[in-house]
Specification:
With 162 residues, this protein is mostly helical. 78% of the residues lie in helices and 0% in strands. Helix 1 runs antiparallel to helix 6 and helix 2 runs parallel beside helix 4.
Length: 162
Amino acid sequence: MNDGFTLGLLGLLAAMLAWIAVVDVRTYTISDRINIAIALLAPVYWLSAGVPLWPDAAIRVGVAVLVFFLFAGAFYMNVMGGGDVKLAGALALWFTPFEALTLIVVMSIAGGFLTLIVLVAHRMRRKEGRPEVPYGVAIAVGGMWLLAQRFLNHFAGMSVGN
């Protein structure tokens, strides 16, 4: 992980997640282009980080497909948007199976808090109907959490003399 290119890819992913969160709050949409970019950059990251294509990368693809179908169920129940589903699947490509599970847990917790904030704001404004929750924010928080863990764990392992 000392490779500057690998760190640059992780930084780019973090920047894309921040962008997604801002745009989702403003427009309640997540562009297919950015989801495709996140998915297509994952294999570049694997190569730069030394992730073996077999079985590790293949397992990541399988987990990402499972994440996609899990969230597609939420889309089918009309509780999540299509861009959110694609983002969760694309983002899962970047992480190990354990990290993907952590991603789901963190995004669920963040999504719960986000939903409460949106509900309170909706009621305070006395709006009618069901409020929209920009769930891309929660997905971005989950991804950023994992990226922060990588950076913090990387620097925690360094001694002062290095």
